[in-house]
Amino acid sequence: MTRASRPFLESPLRQFLLGCCLLVAAAGALFVFQRHAIVAALEQESVALHRLASQRADQHDAHLTALSAIAAAAADDRRDLFLDVAATITRFYPRIDEVQLIPLDPGGEPIGTEPVDPQTAELVRAAAKVHDGKIVLLPHPTRAHHYIMIKRSPNSAAARYGLMLGVDAAKLLGGASPYWSRPGVSLNLSLPDGQPLLAPGPAPKTIRVSRTLDSASQPLILETGVAIRMAEIFPLALTGFTLAAVGLGYTAAISALRQRARTRAAMEQARISALDSRLAHASRVNALGEMASGLAHELTQPLTAILAQAQAGRRMVDRGDMARLATVLDDTVKQARRAATMLERFRNWSRPQQMPGSACDLRDVIENVHALLTPLAASCGTRLTFHIPDNAVLVAADAIEMEQVVFNLMRNAVEATSASDSAGQVTVTLQQDARQAVLEIADNGPGVSEELRRRLFTPFTTTRANGTGLGLALSQRLVERAGGDISLVEGGSGATFRVVLPRRQGLAGATP
Question: What superkingdom heads the lineage (predicted)?
Fold first, then answer.
């Protein structure tokens, strides 16, 4: 303690004034921190809601295009076909609760998911006749918090129909986050011209965020806000703890000598440095163990195949069957190269990955896994059923990695059915559309417990005594590296895993 600082710290009045300044500074810092947290939460939730609403709005364009194509091709002759597609859309997308096909000829009969009133029908006709080919957005004439999308069909001067989708604005934004039901939070949605669709109350003036949906046809205005209340800025427990901590710290600081403070600081720094060293060492050991376990898990399949082929080759040598031995050796070499490829992938596991330049056919992947798992399914008494399209299903992914994903999922499904009292059944379904391929693997086993669902894709999560718990975690990483998604489908008996992979255009043919 210096001579200049000693009189100041030894004066009770000056100690009190300094303590008050520190408490005021602590309260100001708490205000800034809490306000920043509130603003950050609003911006983060607003961005997530904006992205979700924009994605949902883009889906409406695809629905209108599909319905328009059906209407132009066969609306007069196949009303049932149009109604079936419309019913499917309203069932899988509850926010779309009305589909109408209105003939531009007033004498024509409307086709829709429900009866349409004359006012709405005339509104659709008028909009379809005058617009320039773009989708028209209007508030629903009879339903609150709804808007309608109107498009002429065919989308040309020779249009015969006005196609309408009725969209529930509340459901367009629904299910995003519990954050939007909190007190003081406001959520408004308006048409591009400012007409409100969803406005439960005026947006708070304290903090407001306004964004336009990223949809060319539905540039709806999303406005969010939150009112900052003193109870949120200065929570009782946090404020009391902060002020008490500042006061106690200040009292302890002025009662200690500088030399002792420097000594304690040096000791604390040494302790933290030692702790950091131990934690860094533990992290390296854990990472090494995870990589080793993953490598052993990945190599089990090709090494098992090599062992089986070697045993078969030995029996052929004993019998003198040299003609078939060459085939067995070829398969052994193939599996050895497969293991070498896996080792190379683990060596490059942490390096930045690029999307493959060629496509693989998921049908070939499933066929290869089917051949590998047929003996296991037979031993477990499990029936394998496949629903595979006739045309190639090409995705931009590595064939070996996709085989590993399908192998893990199918093997888990077969082993799950072995514990069931009824006859085991595993169904593999592969579908595709213009943008993505969807693979579903379902079984009639006991399903996945609620406790396990929360950490299903976490490494080392397993229910088998001899399992490594890395199969689903590695499968998730491989699928995500290919730009796809893997998930457990909710509902139904047993367990159903869904793999969604984007289809790529402009690729070379399927990899061998």
Answer: Bacteria
Q: 301 with 339, same domain?
A: yes
| Residues 61, 152 within the same domain | yes
Together in a domain, 64 and 135:
yes
Whether residue 372 sits in one domain with residue 335:
no
> What's CA 438's distance to the chain center, in Å?
15
Q: Give the CA-trace dihedral at 143, 144, 149, 152, to 10 degrees.
A: 30
> What is d(CA 491, CA 40) in angstroms, rounded to the nearest whole number?
35
Total domains, the chain: 3
Contact yes or no for 213/192 (Cβ under 8 A): no
Segment 184-238, tens digit of pLDDT: 888 889 999 888 888 765 555 566 778 899 888 889 999 888 887 777 777 777 7
d(CA 418, CA 380): 5
352-373 pLDDT, tens digit per residue, is 455 555 688 999 999 988 988 8
Q: How far apart are CA 54 and CA 61, in angstroms?
A: 11
Distances (CA, A) of 483 to 97, 195, 472: 32, 39, 16
Residue that finishes a domain, picked among 316, 347, 378: 347
Question: Considering the domain boundaries, does residue 155 fall inside one?
Answer: yes
Shared domain check, 450 and 319: no
Bond from prior residue into 110 cis (ω within 30 degrees of 0): no
For residue 183, cis peptide bond before it (omega within 30 degrees of 0)? no
Amino acid at 288: L
Nearest one of 369, 374, 367 to 392, comparing CA atoms: 367
Sort residue 280 into left (φ over 0), alpha (ψ -120 to 50) or beta.
alpha
373 CB-contact burial (10 Å; exposed 0-12 / middle 13-18 / buried 19+): buried
Task: Give, rounded to a whole angstrom, the gap between the first and last alpha carbons of the chain.
Answer: 78
pTM for the whole structure: 0.44
CA distance 188 to 202: 8
Same domain, 227 and 86: yes
CA atoms of 107 and 392, how far apart (whole Å):
46
176, 35: one domain: yes
Tell which residue, 494, 361, 362, 369, has the closest CA to residue 426.
494
Please tell me whether residues 317 and 399 are part of one structural domain.
no
